[in-house]
Amino acid sequence: MNNNLIFGGKIIIPIALLLLLFFGCASMMPSGKILYTGKDIEGDAKTGLIVVGSSNPQTKPYVMIGSPSNDIVFYLPACDKWELESGIKAPIFARNNQYMATVNIGTGSIDTPKEFYKKLMDDMRNSGKCLIRNVDEISIPGSNKLILRYQLKMTESPAKNPQWNTWKWSYWVAAPHNSKWYSLHLSVLDQNEEQISHEDSKIVYVLSLFDPGYFSRKR
Fold first, then answer.
1. 138-148: average pLDDT
2. pLDDT, tens digit (0-9, with 9 covering 90-100), for 51-97
3. What is the spatial distance between Cα 195 and Cα 134, in angstroms, rounded to a whole number?
4. The pTM is what?
5. CA 186 to CA 65: how far, in whole Å?
6. Hey, what domains does the chain have and what are their CATH numbers?
7. How far is CA 58 from the centre of its chain?
């Protein structure tokens, strides 16, 4: 673990690495897969991702992921393993046996996270493909992020999606940057379906660190 990369919950990247990532990846968007197992990844050639673990998972229970090509830094709960994809089915996708996370980037006539979440909820309810309950919006003290939390159960094609036949907790954080909306969706896969995840406070904390536009601000 390179402790110089994290300070006060924010990523600090060496200038040489920033130059390599900015100019070395400028010709095309990276696309590929990578496996994180606890060893820091300082600029993977295929995915373009930077992955940095916490020096103390007990007090800082997160893994930092940076994507210069997508101009974003975000955090996920600390785990022994994360399977990461970039530029395949989504700008960034991550999964292990506990969580599934997706970063999306898009445009739309939306002004606030509340409007983003309302449209999201309306679209899901109108799709007829799922049931939703226990919807809540969470404000974080000391942060300008608003977190959406709810439970979801799929009703379409249950044989093809057996793990989604029970209620799963889902979390979203959305933020605008340069006329685009960046969002991070995190689903909890290993849990008692009737109870809120015991990881709830950790999840809410790491999502509050969602930081689109990080790399453009550092140029």
1. 90
2. 998 877 666 788 999 999 999 999 999 888 999 999 988 999 999 99
3. 11
4. 0.82
5. 14
6. 3-218 (3.40.1000.10)
7. 20
